[in-house]
Amino acid sequence: MEDILRIGGREIKNRLFIGTGKFSSYNVMKLALEASNAEIVTVALRRVDEASKTENILDYIPKRCILAANTSGARNADEAVRIARLAKAAGCGNWVKIEVIQDNKYLLPDNLETVKATETLAKEGFIVLPYMSPDLSMARRLVDAGAAAVMPLGSPIGSNRGFKTRELVEILISEIKIPVIVDAGLGAPSSACECMEAGCAAVLVNTAIAIAEDPVVMAKAFSDAVKAGRMAYVSGIPRSEKNARASSPLTGFLRNE
Amino acid sequence: MSFYDLYSQYRDIDTAFGPITRRDPEKALSAKSPGIKDFLALLSLPAETYLEEMAVKSHKLTLQYFGKTIQLYTPLYLSNYCDNRCVYCGFNADNKIERKRLTPKEVESEAKVIAATGLQHILVLTGESRTQSPLSYIKECVDVLKNYFSSISVEIYALTDREYAELVLAGADGLTIYQEAYDKEVYKAMHPSGPKNDYRFRLDAPARGAGSGMRNVNIGALLGLDDWRKEVFWLGLHAKYLQDKFPDVEVGASLPRLRPHAGHFTIPHKVSDRAMVQTIAALRIFLPRLGISISTREEAGFRENLISIGITRMSAGSSTYVGGHTIPKHNTDTLPQFEISDTRDVSGIMGMLERKGYQPVLKDWLRI
Amino acid sequence: MVIKINGRAESVEKSSTIIELVSKRGLSAEKIVIEHNLRIVPTEEWSGIALKENDNIEIVSFVGGG
Fold this sequence. Notes:
The structure holds 3 protein chains of 3 kinds. Helices cover 37% and strands 16% of the residues of chain A. Chain A is of the alpha/beta class. Chain A has one domain (5-238): TIM Barrel (Alpha-Beta Barrel). In chain A, the strands form 2 sheets. In chain A, strands 8-7-6-5-4-3-10-9 form an 8-stranded parallel sheet. The relative contact order of chain A is 0.14. By secondary structure, chain C is mainly β. Chain C has one domain (2-61): Roll (Ubiquitin-like (UB roll)), CATH 3.10.20.30. A 5-stranded mixed sheet of chain C has the order 2-1-5-3-4, with no helix packed on it. In chain C, a hairpin with a 2-residue loop joins strand 1 (2-5) and strand 2 (8-11). The radius of gyration of chain C is 12 Å and the shape is globular. The mean pLDDT of chain C is 86. Chains in contact: A-B, A-C. The A-B interface holds A 140, 174-175, 236, 238-241, 243, 245, 248-251, 253-254, 257 and B 27, 30-33, 51-53, 55-56, 59, 244, 247, 272-274, 277, 301-302, 305, 308-309. Strand 4 (40-47) of chain A pairs antiparallel with strand 5 (56-64) of chain C.
């Protein structure tokens, strides 16, 4: 049976989502996207101040990919909503990754504003993927607000520290019915694999691929790690502890029956 | 999604899950968080080989989640008027028994006697009669009981959302309502007439109570009416549904077992002690924080053994007669709802728990 | 007259249209989105909208981002 992730009415086979920031060139980014076979790709929106000679990033993203606009730069819900609408008008489709950050030291998200933005955008028909700190109550509110998935952080953005939030994310995985996608902080393929073994629906990686010595090979490495972790999860990682069974101290009283 | 929808989805258990092999209970025992199929495997015939392992795991989980504590409560029967004809019940409308309803004053006398034992959790019960024991009467009784008990649960006929909210406002914090039989056909056969005949209204009652502000919701299957493996499976699924949908509500399950008694009713599917142990262990492994109650229907020695398996609540000093705490038994012609096996009083049960190294909990909640 | 473009005050010719602004800055229409006083303006309306004193214009386009 094929293992398919369903989000927003789409069927996704590759559970590695890739962010497009920090690559040395659009060309390298393009090769990395091709090597990883990623299907979900995030892009951001920025002000254009003058005749930019840079080319259109969208031309470098394989046509089969689903684009999700990242609202990075938004400091509150209103700004996130505004950026999402602009992105849609610019031809990004209706997928949006909500990222609302007021803290420039740790780049940790503002969950409350994220819920507000999710609610507004989901009502407008966006497929909303909110980036969040892993918190069960907030995740439930995001589900109620209409999120298509939740994206808890593994560790702070760009920190490459790995799956530090595992305990909290595991709670989300067991309680939240929509896909849980770990986003941010995954510095090595082993971390991405660990997320998938724990039962995450997907992971989103950007920095670790973009700043690798060879981003193209690293993209492939992440893609394979995600596949391996997913296969391990689906096949049921055994946790067996075989104790000898000599006596029946707890059920011995049943012998008289 | 209502629980009825979930029930419909898995109604044909064999088709929904496929055959259970010997490997399945093993897998379920080593699973990190056992799922629905694991639960089914733990209830299966092949799992009987692993009963001791199941008991050990259940015991460990119970200690981990509840510590060495057992909560005590006692039932208070307000009225035995009933419009239903549940074939197994002493209150059946066709039974020619003396019908009685306590006045608020009599309720107060009962409350005083029970409160003097130290119990702070009370479970009030009535038969189903909207004319003889209407909601207004039950609210009146709750209002009296508030002065004596810190937690009041009701075990009465199924209500609407609004009515449950009214009861919560009146001071009730717990709802106990058993589906008795989850299998729809068996249910219909066991409840041939009266308002309780409405299967679906009863099935979704616990969710209505939980959604209307009840802090504790306790469900149950009357074991013996149908194949216990199937019934306990539905019971566990129902409990999980409630836990998932209402994370702020304490969900509990009761395992009342039909015992042979003098009545006309013959038990369709006898349930062994072994099956009771398997039931408790499977529920515990599937739902570690589920409250599990065992009533005084069961014999003293058996109840004591079940403490180590995984139960968390016991009734004590019970009487299943209306007015049974104040009126001596020989003075009453009424029938009990069912026969009591463990007749020890509250201090007797407390002494037994303390000797076993358990703390009897008389109160774990305070109304403010 | 003075209008705000991407948060900065700039002077432009009186009653220029959006399309004039875009071409003057050498931007290609298919790469950008324009927001005029918080309203997203579809490309086909660019020629019909004359700018007024103190108008707010945002010009944005896609870049790489996580």
